[in-house]
UniProtKB/TrEMBL annotation, chains A, B:
Residues that bind substrate: 12, 31, 87, 93-96, 102
Biological-process GO terms, alphabetical: diadenosine triphosphate catabolic process; intrinsic apoptotic signaling pathway by p53 class mediator; negative regulation of proteasomal ubiquitin-dependent protein catabolic process; purine nucleotide metabolic process
Class of this enzyme: hydrolase
Name of the protein described by the UniProt record: Bis(5'-adenosyl)-triphosphatase
Top-level taxonomic group: Eukaryota
Known partners and oligomeric status: Homodimer. Interacts with UBE2I. Interacts with MDM2. Interacts with CTNNB1. Identified in a complex with CTNNB1 and LEF1.
A Pfam short name: HIT
GO CC list: cytoplasm; nucleus; plasma membrane
Keywords, alphabetical: Hydrolase, Nucleotide-binding
Essential cofactor(s): Mn(2+)
Length: 154, 154
């Protein structure tokens, strides 16, 4: 993916090879430490910390993109449901100060208690041990799998 | 609120007096058993079970409404953050088969572990004991508090 430009995700620069959809105002990326298979993120391109700071057209584009992405990951990862979560602010568990939507494909019995997934999500956001991160190769492979699933502006 | 028409929320008919915002495609209602103060719901007017079934203009209106509502409840309930959650499908914890966004104002230390809120959310959706429900009077009072906070089409 030489020549592709990375995108800002809070303080991080996300390699273009780990993103799989880009619209005029939003982008979608695979996760460095997914809580469930197919756990991906959708973000506004503009670096905005809180949902209330998003312009109307950004909210619209962001969630239309989230709808597209959730439909694709549910299908790709053979899930039946999806948890769509925004931790808007530190007290809601937000760790990266850039609005992002967690898209979490769900299958029956994936967690002993259905909502244990959120405890994993909390650990996911706090635990920055690099040893638990996926390799760039694994991430690129997943992005390359997802990218062709979008027909237009990816 | 005599004369106001109720709205469908899955199998339920929601009294208009417990709703506080209505747009062309969405509405917002107070909760019969809030998990935190100010826990409200935003729904599409059309009875659609899953996010993928929503038309583009419905997704757009729904989340623009959710942005407006979350900004107001965070302010009204003196919160600092907000959890925005869609349980899209049974395996994600959805109990009422009608798309709905949970808007949960958050304050520092509201739960011992930040994400225990989701366990409460799960209990909230499953536990239908009427003894734990708020009275219609409490719900109407909260809706009447929130309604004037929206400038236009409520």
């Amino acid at each position: 993916m030489a020549g592709s430009t990375g995108l800002k995700f809070g303080q991080h620069i996300i390699p273009a090879s780990t993103t799989f959809l880009r619209t005029s105002l939003s982008f979608a990326l695979v996760n460095i430490k997914p809580v469930v298979p197919g756990h991906v993120l959708v973000c506004p391109i503009r670096l905005v910390e809180r949902v209330k700071q998003l312009k109307t057209e950004e909210v619209s584009d962001l969630f239309i993109t989230a709808q597209r992405v959730s439909t694709v990951v549910v299908s790709c990862f053979k899930a039946s449901s999806v948890s769509i979560v925004v931790q808007d602010g530190r007290e809601a568990g937000q760790s990266v100060p850039h609005v992002h939507i967690h898209i979490l494909p769900r299958i029956l019995g994936d967690f002993l208690n259905n909502d244990d997934i959120y405890q994993e999500l909390q650990r996911h956001d706090k635990d920055l041990l690099e040893s638990q991160h996926r390799t760039i190769y694994e991430m690129e492979r997943e992005a390359a799998l997802l990218k062709p699933m979008f027909h237009s502006d990816s």
